[in-house]
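Q: Is it fine to ask for two folds in a single conversation?
A: Yes, each is treated on its own. Send the first.
Q: Here.
A: Result:
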Amino acid sequence: MATVLFVDLDREWAVPLLERELADGAWRLELRREGLGRVLDDLGPAAAEVEVLSPFIGSRVGAAELERLPALRLVSTRSTGFDHVDLEAARQRGVTVCNVPVYGDNTVAEHTFALILSLSRKLRETYERVRRDEFNLDRLEGFDLRGKTLGLVGTGHIGLRVIQIARGFSMQVVAFDPREQPLLADVLGFTYAPLEQVLARADIVSLHAPLTGATRHMINAETLALMKRGALLINTARGGLVDSDALLEALRSGQLGGAGLDVLEGEGLLLDEDQARAGLHDLEAMRAAVLSHMLLGRDDVIFTPHLGFNSREANERIFQTTVENIRAFYRGAPRNVVGR
């Protein structure tokens, strides 16, 4: 009997949902909290029966993993981003890859502003001072968002929701996206500009772009130098968009006034023990993880461990869409397919 395998499953409430929604005598449901590498080791020969795999962003699905899943037909990742899945390797093996394209536009957008406000009102410093029973206001002066310019990199579902919230704060918004949407710009009251101009004009830059070969390290020493001195950088998209070495130097020099980060380069090695062990021989990944760890120790950095998506409502949408992706695939009409 074929197996539908869920890994990285850390939501207890999702187990009865999946057992109910995917109850079907045609396959066996395997639900695991662990990452894919550990689960494959545990399954052993039984991995050859897995037809459907549903991972989250912490599990790498590359050529080596696919080799261990010879019957695999579908990877349905429970995320919008799919850079953890080797699309070319999947294509060569005839494996369809689906994602969840829309689930947390408002969720991630709201978290973006949680990071912005944490920096603009110096909440980290304030909280740590109060815990020491210190209540003076010295060096705790923040700044208003009203009248400031927010620079957006990426105006997809999340970026557009960020713009709506920013306009509610009476901010000016300028955005960069290779695929401009002039009508929406008119309706929401923002303007498009080249990336260089967005960076130069913004008091706060927020990243909402996918991670691709073209966008990797799009924020680097050269682009950081274009920003206003003392501006803030927010990243709730993917860690690889930002060169960690350049970011660290920009913070040290005062070119950046602070960074609010929900994602980091090499975050898998920092947050997941299995990936840390597997990455011991990947010098580039280890270097990125070390630099990211250095960023975490800075007072001008607010970090949350890739949980911008993590509301109950968004998680429910993720699982429901994943269920629908699996059902659609078995009906012969795959949906939300990536890499076409």
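Q: Second one now.
A: Result:
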Amino acid sequence: MPPHRGHQFLIDFARAYAERVTILVCTLERDPIPGRLRYEWVCEMAAAPNVDVVHVDEDLPQSPADHPQFWEIWQCVIGNAVPGRVDYFFACEDYGPRTAEVIGDECRYVPVDPARALVPISASAIRGDPLRHWEFLPEAVRPYYVRRVCIFGPESTGKSTLARDLAREFKTVYAHEYARPLLDPHGGQCRLEDIPAIVRGQVATEEALARQANRVLFCDTDVLTTTLWSDVLFKATPDWIQALAERRTYDLYLLLDVDVPWVDDSQRFFSAEPVRRETYARFRDALERRGRPCRVIRGDWNERLSAAIRAVRELL
């Protein structure tokens, strides 16, 4: 909890050693990280034609002190998961030799870096400070721990530029505003029927890049922003998009004020100062009503970047 590079080494070692490998992902309902999620992570980490991943989600004893028939119980669990003969049992823990004996006389224990010298990490260390041990997290696991920062606010406030600059400063990636490339071929004109495609594209961009991020992912807009614009432009937003906007939250919102000049382009609408102020208030209120963590960013471009960098450093 979570699977890490040490588990990846164990998996890859077994795949290179044996012709066919079965991995048991054993989870409890009370675990702090959902078992189904961990099973899916391991399926991705171990994906190969000669590997089977089995999810065991029974409430099983975790040590011999927990139950007088501990070894008999686990013998049945392993036998049900791996029918037929088991030649090798791979582990780095000290329960390896005894488990191999329980599996059967023909099974041999194969130790894999028991000193943890090759991949010096533990799951408890990662849980204690995941960002410090980022290099030990497999790509499949990183989206679970990555800090997400949403660049939020009205049009023409420098969101895209700030997202790019922050990504450069923190040596990571950013998710762009998906609506722009989607609407550019149509002269920037948005229709109500475009809203679902914008939302799906925005979410997909973010989730894909979360796997590549270095501790923090900057997101140039979000689903909540799309709902606000849909309500303004069309007086309507599909219910499923409204629900999605409530579920998708970020570790920090950088709310950009409208105290910079308005710049025209093919996808902007409201240049009048009173309307810009009204729009800013709508965005601010949307965050306040939901109690989402927010830092207001204002001033000239250099001041904005400096304030945003300070806010992100505090988050990390």
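Q: Anything structural to flag on that second result?
A: Two points. Residues 227 and 242 are 7 Å apart (CA to CA). The mean pLDDT is 93.
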